[in-house]
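BUG-313 | component: ligand-complex export | severity: low

The export step for 2-oxoglutaric acid jobs runs without errors, but we want the raw record kept on the ticket for reference. Input record follows.
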Amino acid sequence: MRGTKALGQAGKQGGGSGWALTSKSRLTSSRFSFSPASLIVGSCFFFLAGFFLSSSLLSLDIGSGVRFSGGLDFRRKLEAEERVYEPLPHGDTGDDSFTAVPSQVLSWKPRALYFPNFATKKQCESIIKMAKSGLKPSTLALRKGETTESTQGIRTSSGMFISASEDKYGVLAFIEEKIARATSLPRSHGEAFNVLRYEVGQRYNSHYDAFSPSEYGPQKSQRVASFLLYLSDVEKGGETMFPFENGLNMDGNYDFRECIGLKVKPQQGDGLLFYSLLPNGTIDPTSLHGSCPVIRGQKWVATKWIRDQIQDD
Ligand SMILES: O=C(O)CCC(=O)C(=O)O
């Protein structure tokens, strides 16, 4: 029989004592005697043990892309898993260590990502403290033909602009660096932080952060993406909303005050990133967004608009 022969060969190659199970005669002619029943039970045991061992080894291999064909490959696989990755030599503007900023894709239309625990409670509180004394009623970029009076009620929060260079504690610089890594957009392309406070009833009707030249005139640079850092929890309301998410509500009947679509609940320290431009550089119509009115509590958020050109401030 083929199987017996192969085992016999293996036994020979393995040396003098060899494997005990090389041939039936060796087993039966030794000091030990085996009844046919015990031989059957024994064979079953070894068969099952072999089956479970090989299937568990193979199952470890599934999905790893490493082919298992014996002990050596299996050891290689373990070594691959335990490999410690070393950072590569980097360019002048690169980092000497790895960065991991956990994120969740909330939507592809618009491209929106959520970053839990992006900043600490202490960092958030320090930003609020910096902004508190300088708050003024928030303003709007006006379209052709619009006036401050005609746009009243669209954006009712208070806010102030603050740049990292004005923060002697370095919190804003740290957050900016982190945003640059999370977005892969250089820090130099960010506007100053716009820290906003919404009180009960205050809101920001749905709008685009990018400036359409047909509505706002020619633009020297364009907003590519917005990163919102929630500086406080809100008891009720105050969600950031995307009413046109995935093409919904785009039939022309949407009322820009309506709080519908994908809603993101502000939670202290969390970040929200969304892109105003599509990969081809045109404005993403689904990036329309706004802030639902705060119903209970207060909302604090720091917005960082990131542009396609270097910013001077
Ligand atoms: O407060 C929010 O959730 C949205 C803010 C916003 O739309 C903006 O700053 O452009």
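Assignee comment: Attached the raw record above. Confidence is low (pLDDT under 50) at residues 1-33, 52-69.
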